[in-house]
From TrEMBL:
InterPro entries in the cross-refs: Aminotrans_3, Aminotrans_3_PPA_site, Dat, Ectoine_EctB, PyrdxlP-dep_Trfase, PyrdxlP-dep_Trfase_major, PyrdxlP-dep_Trfase_small
EC number in record: 2.6.1.76
GO biological process: ectoine biosynthetic process
Alphabetical list of SUPFAM superfamilies matching this protein: PLP-dependent transferases
Cofactor(s) it depends on: pyridoxal 5'-phosphate
Native organism: Brachybacterium endophyticum
NCBIfam families: dat, ectoine_ectB, PRK09264.1
Similarity section: Belongs to the class-III pyridoxal-phosphate-dependent aminotransferase family.
Keywords: Aminotransferase, Pyridoxal phosphate, Transferase
Official protein name in the record: Diaminobutyrate--2-oxoglutarate transaminase
Annotated metabolic or biological route of this protein: Amine and polyamine biosynthesis; ectoine biosynthesis; L-ectoine from L-aspartate 4-semialdehyde: step 1/3
Record-level Gene Ontology MF annotations: diaminobutyrate-2-oxoglutarate transaminase activity; diaminobutyrate-pyruvate transaminase activity; pyridoxal phosphate binding
Length: 423
């Protein structure tokens, strides 16, 4: 994303590691639905949604009421992994409304407050179950900023921040990495079957059905099915990272639903609480749940308020298919608008990407995409960039965004792209 000098005096107290505030140098004070309001009273349309943590928008009134009632009634806020009624209610609702209708059977681990916690737990358990060390990951993957998660992340800048060698992981080409010139998994299968390849048999493969930080790269359903079959053939566990693309972002609750696969483990975070509260899950096939008590733990793995809002969110949005259908319709609308832009500026070879309400417009360079993002901000829209060189304009609006705001935001992008490419 582009950088802008901020006038806020308090930045001298913050580490230079901050990022989003450099691109959006205003202080936000209020948020409702898909609108953020700055200190000066200006409203901004939100196509960012907390990097996918706010699939149901900011401060949804029914979720807010549940949260306030939980606090006002002195319900349990911090419970580690002790039994609480609100924990039980979440688990029962998650099973009856999410897992069972999809024919999925998983046990649920609460590994800590964030997505990286869920990924670390999955990697550790895969190694414990198989007795192997190696993990296969994919080009342009992003799985978190802790050391284990970084080892299976592709971005060189983020990997470089580790300060130590990131080992026991082998990158393989993601879907369409070679523009489909090379048959799917030809390289990986050859390495797995060749005794001279030097590849240690992996404990697991970790994959995103849609790579968000990697540039809104959406894997084909047949590619995901092929990967699942390959893992089964070679007795390798399949971990599906659904931290950013789960909870309805691509249409179905899980991003892998359209492929019809059943990963051995699934990681969830971001929008699982429904309200932007820290919460994460690692879903585990029951036969793989061989943890010893306390073998993986954390202080903040029993978030009472998040359990309460997560339960309500599932009840509100996943009792029928209305949200899923709406997400598909809105995603198709964005795709149509982006296709029009690509046709209008065909000499610049813009690439339309994504699925559901995870959408991207690949620009010729990161510099141009950054200019579009900056112009959009000046016009009242928050939209970020992603990809290896930040060359993709990345849209993650709330699934509940009203049609008029979605249209207004896309109009701003149209204007910004036109100004940048016509300069």
């Amino acid at each position: 994303m582009t950088t802008t000098t901020t006038p806020l005096e308090t930045t001298e107290l913050e580490s230079k590691v901050r990022s989003y505030s450099r691109s959006w140098p205003v202080s936000f004070t209020r948020a409702q639905g898909s609108t953020l309001t700055a200190e000066d009273g200006r409203d901004y349309i939100d196509f960012f949604a907390g990097a996918g943590a706010l699939n149901y928008g900011h401060n949804h009134p029914e979720l807010k009421k549940v949260l306030l009632d939980h606090i006002l009634e002195d319900r349990v806020v911090h419970g580690l992994d002790m039994f609480t009624d609100v924990r039980r209610q979440f688990l029962e609702t998650f099973r009856s409304s999410i897992l069972e209708p999809r024919g999925l059977d998983y046990t649920v681990a609460f590994p800590g407050p964030g997505g990286a916690n869920a990924v670390e737990a999955a990697l550790k358990l895969a190694r414990k179950v198989t007795g192997r060390e190696s993990i296969v990951n994919f080009t342009n993957a992003f799985h978190g900023m802790t050391l284990g998660a970084l080892s299976v992340t592709g971005n060189s800048l983020k990997r470089g921040g580790a300060g130590v060698p990131l080992v026991h992981a082998t990158p393989m080409p993601y879907d369409d990495y070679f523009d489909q010139v090379v048959p799917d998994f030809m390289y990986l299968e050859r390495l797995l079957t060749d005794a001279g390849s030097g590849l240690n048999k992996p404990a697991a493969v970790i994959v995103e059905a849609v790579q968000g930080e990697g540039g809104i790269n959406a894997a084909r359903a047949e590619w995901l099915r092929g990967l699942s079959e390959l893992c089964k053939k070679h007795e390798i566990l399949l971990i599906l990272d659904d931290i950013q693309m789960g909870c309805g972002r691509t249409g179905g609750f899980f991003s892998f639903e359209e492929a019809g696969i059943e990963p051995d483990m699934v990681t969830l975070s971001k929008s699982i609480s429904g309200y932007g509260l820290p919460m994460a899950l690692t879903l585990i096939k029951p036969e793989l749940d061989i943890w010893e008590p306390g073998e993986h733990n954390g202080t903040f793995r029993g978030p009472g308020p998040a359990f309460a809002t997560a339960t309500k969110a599932i009840e509100l949005f996943w009792s029928d298919d209305e949200l899923e259908r709406s997400t598909g319709t809105k995603g198709a609308f964005i795709e149509s608008r982006f296709n029009q832009l690509a046709a209008r500026f065909e000499d610049h070879q813009l690439v339309v990407k994504g699925r559901g309400l995870a959408r991207g417009l690949e620009m010729p360079s990161g510099e141009l995409a950054g200019k579009v993002s900056s112009l959009a901000f000046e016009r009242g829209l928050l939209v970020e960039t992603s990809g290896p060189s930040d060359e993709v304009i990345k849209l993650l609006p709330a699934l509940t965004i009203p049609d008029d705001q979605l249209t207004a935001g896309l109009d701003i992008i149209d204007e910004a792209v036109a100004e940048v490419l016509s300069a």
